[in-house]
Amino acid sequence: MGSERRLNKRVNREIPMTFILIDKVKPGILDAPDALKIREGLLVDFSAAGVSMRTTELVDSWTPFFRSEDLLVGIQFKFPFEPRPVCAVTQVMWVKKIPPQKKYYLLGLKFTLINNLDLFKVRKYIIGASIKQKQ
């Protein structure tokens, strides 16, 4: 396998975030407390197409529903010096349990619904990070 080539520039930054699970198709995947719970995670990298997130707040039995696109993830995170957070609905592209014996997950999330202003904030932060790297 060759090296991976991405269409969008990815920035590695750890930013605290919150998320909720959205039961898209099948009522009953999540019970009410799970569906309403605001969970915490850490954004570990991002691009204009999506983010990677680390969390301990998942359950193994949900993994097949992410893969079938029955569960989406609503995310919220705030860049430094921005007054309002970025909010988006995302589709889980992949899930890894790191390491397998611990309850620690890494998720690749693709933006499926994000407003133009929030997408602009993401792109602006990517440009800023690129300029800092070149200096």
Description:
This protein is α+β, with helices and mostly antiparallel strands and 135 residues long. It has a single domain, classed as predicted glycosyltransferase like domains (Thrombin, subunit H). The chain is 21% helix and 41% strand. The protein has three helices and six strands; from the N terminus they run E-H-E-E-H-E-E-E-H. The chain has helices at 32-36, 63-67, 116-134, and strands at residues 11-23, 39-46, 50-55, 71-77, 86-97, 105-114. The model has no long low-confidence stretch (mean pLDDT 86).
Q: What's the CATH H-level superfamily name?
A: predicted glycosyltransferase like domains
- The helix/strand series, from N terminus to C terminus, equals EHEEHEEEH
Low-confidence stretches: none
Which percent bin holds the helix content?
10-25%
Shape: globular
Oligomer: single chain
Average pLDDT level? 86
CATH topology: Thrombin, subunit H
CATH-scheme architecture: Beta Barrel
